[in-house]
Amino acid sequence: HTETVQRLLELGANPNHQNKNGCSPVHAASQNGHTDVVDLLVQAGADIHLATTDEYGSVPLGIAAAKGHTETVQRLLELGANPNQQDKNGRTALFKASLEGHEAVVRLLLEKRADVNICAKNGCSPVYAASQEWPHRCSGPTSPGRS
């Protein structure tokens, strides 16, 4: 993927182009754990804070965290992603990683000072999300970045 993305960027592809749901190339790379592609896109001007325009408002860090892509989460944080940025449902990357049981991502986010007390709009906290036997009770409808 890296060489193809590099070539498309060289030909003038817009790294912030969003599809009808507001997903950009950096959202897709984050969802698939393509850290090297994230780097290329950011070097070309991709916005790592860009939220999808659908009903979820997902950001790349939250998407990577929900999928358990520790290396991609680490890189996004190094590039300046805000570990406490919330989506439209109030969910942070820590909430999403906790909900999906991605312990390595949770540890990384906590090391980077993710706030354990930020609750989703439905009142669920990351610790509540992590304690759920049935994660969908606290997650709401399926959203980008959900497993």
Automatic annotation (TrEMBL):
The cross-references to SMART domains, in alphabetical order and at most eight, read: ANK
Is Repeat set as a keyword in this record? yes
Residues in ANK repeats? 21-53, 56-88, 89-121
InterPro entries cross-referenced by the UniProt entry: Ankyrin_rpt, Ankyrin_rpt-contain_sf
List, alphabetically, the SUPFAM superfamilies matched.
Ankyrin repeat
**Is Repeat one of the keywords?**
yes
- Which controlled-vocabulary keywords does the entry list? ANK repeat, Repeat
Identification of the protein by name: Protein TANC1
